[in-house]
Specification:
about 75% helix; rod-shaped
Amino acid sequence: MLRLNLLLLLAAVFCALGVVTSQHQARKLFQALESEQDRARQLEVEFGQLQLELSTWATSPRIEKIARDKLKMRTPEASRIISANSGATAQ
């Protein structure tokens, strides 16, 4: 009878240690999950900011300014413009 009680006590101690260990691991995993969710939110904000910046960099006035200033391009004269629909040629 003493052996059975000792064996049951040992089993109860091992179960208790298992519960404590699993709760600790669950808390650590939950903290890691919250940390990754925070990081995901930060990345979503950064992505939105980058999309806004990209749309700003790709505006027509900015592209035209770069074409004029850096590439020395200019708008052609009306007489030199060929319309794809008319089939006319410039001389």
